[in-house]
Design goal:
Length: 345
């Protein structure tokens, strides 16, 4: 028996919406910091790097500001008159001398770069957020960790806890996460989720026994038992036959000098002989469909072999596996015909 999350799509969309809102906040904050940097020195400072102290000083002194050596700041000797914010309606004016501190400019740049980095990492999480086969296999193990259980309940890829890192620390590490309740990071967001609070109160450990977790989650109506679908008998036979064809390709193709096509291959006596030795017979021309059926699954038609070969040529095994790297050039892929447009006058 297998278990699956109830309302998985709905919960995935909810969690993705939470994280997308963080991305929006990060982008807004980064843009605000960029505006602050642009305003420094009336847009005369670079927005791509932290300026040197000399460069920063030259920008301000060229505008007539005075530089204070020990304090690393510039001030404008021409005062600005502003309305006193604490004045009680008398429009009283106060004079101030504008100042710019170099360490504040450095802080603004560093904050902007940090925000940009956070935006990038949040985008990476959004790209990998949807649950994968890792989630389906997770409950086959005797135990799971707290963060994997949390991701499972939230409907998101539980493998995120292992694949995305920032400065050698896990981006998603919620169990032992101590944070300000109003923190806007992804860890802070998941830390505040109801699912995290329930898990921590129920189990309180970084590692959770899988059976205890599933029993609890079923009782809480977070997950449900599902019956595994049995693979159809014809599909099993088909996959077995394709495996025989794969092994025969590895044995036959290194023996030929010139590249061949899948159609010629399906008619080649040497290749058919290797298939037969592997347990798969290809029909002789003139054999009726009824005769093929009587031989059950050990005999296939030439067209079926063509279909098997086409499926293999489109597979990851053929295109990416190291076992096939030396034989790919021996078998030409058929060119896909383009339909011609017919103009009617």
């Amino acid at each position: 028996m297998k278990c699956e999350l109830i309302d998985k799509v709905k919960k995935f969309k909810r969690t993705k919406g939470w994280i997308k809102s963080i991305l929006s906040d990060q982008k807004d904050y980064a843009e605000n910091m960029l505006d602050v940097i642009k305003s420094d020195g009336e847009n005369k400072l670079s927005i791509h790097r932290v300026p040197s102290l000399k460069e920063w000083k030259n920008v301000y002194t060229s505008m007539g500001w005075k530089y204070v050596e020990n304090g690393n700041f510039c001030y404008n000797s021409t005062p600005l008159e502003l309305t006193d914010p604490f004045d009680k309606g008398n429009n009283k004016k106060i004079s101030i001398n504008p100042t710019s501190h170099y360490d504040e400019v450095v802080f603004n740049y560093e904050t902007y770069q940090y925000c940009k980095q956070e935006v990038r990492h949040t985008q990476l999480i959004l790209e990998r957020l949807e649950s994968s086969s890792h989630n389906d296999d997770l409950l086959d193990f005797d135990s799971i960790n707290h963060d994997e259980a949390l991701c499972f309940l939230l409907g998101i890829n539980a493998n995120l806890t292992n694949t995305l890192t920032l400065k050698n620390e896990k981006l998603l590490s919620v169990f032992d996460y101590e944070v300000d309740f109003y923190d806007v990071s992804i860890n802070g967001l998941l830390f505040r989720s109801k699912e995290h609070q329930l898990l921590k109160r129920k189990f309180g450990t970084s590692t959770i026994n899988t059976k205890e977790f599933t029993d609890w989650a079923i009782d809480k109506k977070y997950i449900k038992l599902t019956q595994e679908r049995r693979t159809h008998a014809k599909t099993i036979v088909k996959n077995k036959n394709i495996d025989i064809v794969k092994k025969s390709l590895i044995e036959y193709l290194p023996t030929i000098d010139k590249a061949t096509t899948k159609h010629n291959l399906s008619l080649n006596k040497d290749f058919l002989s290797i298939l037969k030795k592997g347990g798969l017979n290809v029909e002789e021309y003139g054999m009726s469909a009824n005769e093929i059926k009587l031989k059950k699954h050990t005999t296939i038609a030439h067209t079926t072999l063509d279909n098997y070969l086409e499926k293999i040529l489109d597979s990851d095994w053929w295109n990416n596996d190291s076992d096939t790297s030396k034989i790919r050039k021996k078998l030409k892929k058929p060119l896909k015909s383009k339909s011609k447009k017919i103009t009617i006058f």
